[in-house]
Amino acid sequence: MESISPAVRTIRKTFMNTDPIKEDDVYPQVKEDFVNSKSVVSNVSDPNIAIPPLTDDQKKRLLRQMLLLRHFELTTQEMTLAGRVPGFCHVYVGEEATAVGVCENLRKDDYIVSTHRGHGHCLAKGADPKILLAELYGKKTGYCGGRGGSMHIFSRELGILGTNGIVGGGLPLVLGGAMHAKLRKTDQVAVCFFGDGAANQGTFHESINIAAIQRLAVLFVCENNLYGTATRVNEATLTKSFADRAGAYGIPGYSVDGNEVLEVYAAAHAAVERARKGNGPTLLECKTYRHYGHYVGEVASYRTKEEVEMWLKRDPIKSYSQRLIHERLMTQDEINALEGKVKDEVAQAERFASESPAPEAKEVLQHVFAD
């Protein structure tokens, strides 16, 4: 049971006009809305979305990509606790199906804008784990020469327009990428990942409204992991599904199980194809869960042991692995071998990052002033 301080109790009573939320009040709703609902898509305007045909190799690649994100982040977490990664670090463990399901629909020249929890998005968009981890280590060989770190990763070549430490800060930025594509008359798509906490920021409403009226090729992806830092989503909004808000702007909105990679892939596929045809933006809500605290090292005492265990049973990698086995596409031994290769790749990335040189003091003013 959550321990609530007298100060927090007073604030809740004053501003929320309610007693502190009890477990029995919260988790029946969580189980109903986030666990037991198995509909592929809950959509404002078009309920008929099916999983597009995928080859066997494409299905196997989905697993490989999720494994890459998982082991990269586990290594990042370990190295952060060891003092190798400077500053705060937020890992993506548990949410891999969302990034992979979305980004497997994108081309290299498409754009993404990410969040403070952005390593997974970058890897799913094609980032080299060696260069990415070097950036996290603050090394010269990183994507930003060690200047950006975890929350400010940028790669023009990969269409990564930045991870972002400001809640909701990436929402207006994605409009720039989409407007750039519109003015150049390309069919590029821009994707903005953001959390449930950002969905209550003013930038959420302003950005979606502008994207709608300009018919911009944007996919807004709300990663609803139930918590904005330590605040439960149902303490911050009465909205049961953020996708329902799409109707206010006259655009489609989908709500999917963010732990099922094929569900995410199907909804993202429809949204990306719609955007490429010039039909405007889509709001996609992916209901998921982070396995660890908000940042590396956080105790996360605001979550119960029972809640965490419930979601660990719904691990996106485990469930998808079982699906591949059931479909006779892979055996458990083949999955283990694939995971071993991914672990080796991440180990090589860690060695590269460790052995890379730090930026030199004489370079401190580079990228500060224009020539």
Q: Explain this structure to me?
A:
The chain is of the alpha/beta class. The protein has a single domain (36-352), classed as 3-Layer(aba) Sandwich (Rossmann fold). It is 44% helix and 9% strand. The chain has helices at 6-16, 23-36, 56-81, 96-103, 119-124, 129-136, 170-184, 202-213, 233-236, 261-276, 305-312, 316-326, 332-355; strands at 42-43, 111-113, 190-195, 218-224, 227-228, 231-232, 253-257, 282-287. The strands form two sheets. A six-stranded mixed beta sheet has the order 1-7-8-4-3-2, sandwiched between helices. It has a two-stranded antiparallel sheet with strand order 5-6. Strand 7 (253-257), helix 10 (261-276) and strand 8 form a beta-alpha-beta unit. Helix 3 packs antiparallel against helix 12 and helix 3 packs across helix 13 (332-355). The longest helix has 26 residues, at 56-81. It is globular, with a radius of gyration of 20 Å. The relative contact order is 0.16. Mean pLDDT is 89; it is low at 7-47.
Which fold name fills CATH's third level, the topology?
Answer: Rossmann fold
Strand order of the largest sheet: 1-7-8-4-3-2
Q: What share of the residues does DSSP label as strand, in percent? A: 5-15%
N-end to C-end Cα span: 59 Å
| Annotated CATH architecture | 3-Layer(aba) Sandwich
Number of domains: 1
State the total count of DSSP E strands.
8
Which class of secondary structure composition applies to the elements? alpha/beta
Explain briefly what this protein structure is.
The chain has 371 residues and is an alpha/beta fold.
SSE order and pairing:
Elements: H1 6-16, H2 23-36, E1 42-43, H3 56-81, H4 96-103, E2 111-113, H5 119-124, H6 129-136, H7 170-184, E3 190-195, H8 202-213, E4 218-224, E5 227-228, E6 231-232, H9 233-236, E7 253-257, H10 261-276, E8 282-287, H11 305-312, H12 316-326, H13 332-355
Parallel strand pairs: 2-3, 3-4, 4-8, 7-8
Antiparallel strand pairs: 1-7, 5-6
Helix pairs in contact: 3-4, 3-12, 3-13, 4-10, 6-13, 7-8
